[in-house]
Amino acid sequence: MAHSEQEILAGLGEIVEEIVGTEPSEVTPEKSFVDDLDIDSLSMVEIAVAAQDKFGVEIPDDQLKDLKTVQDVINYIQK
Amino acid sequence: MSKTDVVVTGLGATTPLGGDVATTWSALLDGRSGVSMLPEEWHESLPVHFAGRIAQEPSEKLPRPRLRRLDRTQQFALIAAQEAWDHAGAPEIDPVRLGVVVSSGIGGILTILEQYDTFREKGWKRVSPFTVPMLMPNSPSAAVALEFTARAGAHAPVSACASSAEAVGDAVEMIRSGRADVVIAGGTEAALHPLNIASFASMRALSTRNEDPEGASRPWDQGRDGFVMGEGAGILVLESAEHAAQRGAKVYAQAAGVGYTDDAYDIVQPDPEGRGQARAISEALKDADLKPADIAHVNAHATSTPTGDVGETRAIRTALGDAAADSVRVTSTKSMTGHLLGGAGAVESIATVLALHEGRIPATINIDELDPETAVDIVRGKSEEMPAGDVAALNESFGFGGHNIALAFKRT
């Protein structure tokens, strides 16, 4: 089942809030997880697992390292 | 060469009696118990249905995203350390001159057990990537170092129920050695889990007075039947007297000396002669340059076990001699808090410091009939005035493994 870009963005906002406490409105497509949202590599692992639960799309470790921005994750999930 | 004087300039605690030092201390003076029935259903599968649960949950002070990557021992340590640091006036200090010595007796066992449950139920990918930095026994020490940018060294001496007394002693030594000017020191424990209660219960170490939780921790009472598990943390800010004077800090007591010994007798049972305990007291007196007659008060280890409590009083008598032992006033904080294991020594150091500073000694509660083998006078019934003048007090902590720590504090 495909998810719309808006659905995925809203879902990622909820996940990021749960894991690092950032306001969901801060989670916008152009933001970099590391540079803009202050998310470290261990938290990124948690986000990937939570995204898998929410959207049913597994993100393997070798792909995860290339997903730098929120838009990258949206694109990967929609693919 | 004379030793550097070390003083106590800040106190912080989160205990079964209160979420900070002020509420804990007032409960100790009032003689209130922090022991209560466990709300969780799992207690029904155990012979013990009560414990000293912390009075204020960490979620009231720390935001949720922080809580989920900190073990409960770390949460307690950070809350107590923040209070102690603020109490000390948040000293301005070069990070390389600020040290940390924060212990836990057991470490992040709740994380270990929860994550093992997750692993078995959901597989390895659902195990938190923060599991290792949460379960490490040094994780509370490291979390405090990170929070307060302490770069002189962060240590975590482990000696079971003596751990945080050892931490306070090591902090004194760290300042004396010249490695730091200020040290955040103490200990934390968070181990209220059915496995841990079962483990202590299987040793027959715990009280099973299920019909009367508040009366279960009763050191030196004839009817005592074991200790009561508690959780919580105590943190002290220790500082060289010179550094404290330079910044005009308020001083609560001098951390004057420490004695470390080990019984090397049995892995669990203390030496029935109390030789190691007595030697720890003697070593602390020597280290602090104190005479037995200077000791007005002892905050005892006294956990409410049938053999330990009276043995400790004999060790006090041996170490102080009859003249000083006849006048010393002895109490047990654990009669009210339960046994905070790796947090106990630091919380009881705080009680000892406050007894000197505030001039009042809390009473031991729940003594209906004093064990006639008790070899010193116990403060019971109600709190007592601390003698005036240049008096000193001892805090004793002992741990499985035969570890004995005695700390000497002097009124300033």
Write a concise keyword list for the protein shown above.
heterodimer, A: 79 residues, mainly alpha, Non-ribosomal Peptide Synthetase Peptidyl Carrier Protein, Chain A, 56% helix, globular, B: 412 residues, alpha/beta, Peroxisomal Thiolase, Chain A, domain 1, 2 domains, eleven-stranded mixed beta sheet, two-stranded antiparallel ribbon
| Helix/strand order of chain A, N-terminal first | HHHH
| Rg of chain A, alpha carbons | 11 Å
Secondary-structure content class of chain A: mainly alpha
Multimeric organization: heterodimer
What is the radius of gyration of chain B? 20 Å
- Please indicate the count of domains of chain A: 1
Overall average residue pLDDT of chain A: 91
Top-tier CATH class of chain A:
Mainly Alpha
Instruction: State the helix count of chain B.
Output: 13
Described by the principal axes of the CA atoms, the overall outline of chain A is globular
Number of strands of chain A: 0
Task: Give the topology string of chain B: H per helix, E per strand.
Answer: EHEEHHEHHHEHEHEHEHEHEHHEEEEE
